[in-house]
Amino acid sequence: AEALENTATGLAYLNEFIKEHGERLNAFVGECYAKTSLQRETFKLVADINSRGKFENVVVQPDAAPMRCYAQKISQLQVSASRPVGYAEQSFPVVLIVNYNK
Fold first, then answer.
1. Model pTM?
2. CA–CA separation, 18 vs 76, rounded Å?
């Protein structure tokens, strides 16, 4: 996933996704930490975006309640960005480093 993100096509796809959903992604962090006393920390999310633009196989690390909440929320998003070349029918893997910066 990280190797694909560092290609021109992968980066363009992720930039389109961030433009489309960036505000929601940031809001998810606050929503998921709102009901916990856990310290806010950076975490990693790895997932596939399937050919229909839905998140699948979402895994977070570390695996704690706020991170699982974030994974559940991101799984509900629909990515409408143009698929990268060669990924029209197959899933596109992504890695997101999520920072709590509020």
1. 0.84
2. 15
